[in-house]
Amino acid sequence: MGLRQALEKLNAAVDDLVTLEVITYTGQVKHVIQNDSKGNPAINWDSLTQSALPKTVNGVTTEAVIKLVAATQIKFDGDTKLFQTDEQDIPRLQELLDVHRKSVETSLAARKAVVDFFADTLKEIVSKT
Q1: Is 0.70 topped by the overall pTM?
Q2: Which of 8, 89, 118, 124 is deepest in the core (most CB within 10 A)?
Q3: Residue environment code for 90-129, b if the CB has 16+ CB neighbours within 10 A, otherwise e
Q4: Residue-by-residue pLDDT tens, the chain, 129 positions
Q5: How far apart are CA 120 and CA 39, in angstroms?
Q6: How far apart are CA 98 and CA 37, in angstroms?
Q7: What value does the CA radius of gyration of the chain take, rounded to a whole number of Å?
Q8: Could you give the CA distance from residue 4 to residue 68 in angstroms, rounded to a whole number?
Q9: Are the beta carbons of 84 and 97 closer than 8 angstroms?
């Protein structure tokens, strides 16, 4: 892989690296699993998160009653936004908040691994020139 290719890959990945978002919902969802274009079962994330109103896609109606438990947004420069519900009547609230926290940690580690990969690749390319 040449320097140009590495930079192109880095540029393509920058959009995903600039902002990290983790959003945790809880609630009841019916019919969110639909067949994708290849006929394989897949979660229709748009239908799940757009609204609680029933929505029909490809003849399947998705009904969702969901609550936002927590949301985290972390910019590449470290700026962070955090939302955590103050509703105490959510079943398993502490467990969901723990899962959210662990998801943020895992996502940060994954982002660091991608950045390290590109940094190591660039170092290797530069050392060969």
Answers
A1: no
A2: 118
A3: eeebeebbebbeeebeeeeeebeeeeeebeebeeebeeee
A4: 677 777 777 666 666 667 889 999 898 877 667 777 888 887 777 766 665 556 666 666 667 778 889 999 998 888 999 999 999 889 999 999 999 999 999 999 998 898 888 888 888 888 887
A5: 39
A6: 35
A7: 19
A8: 42
A9: yes
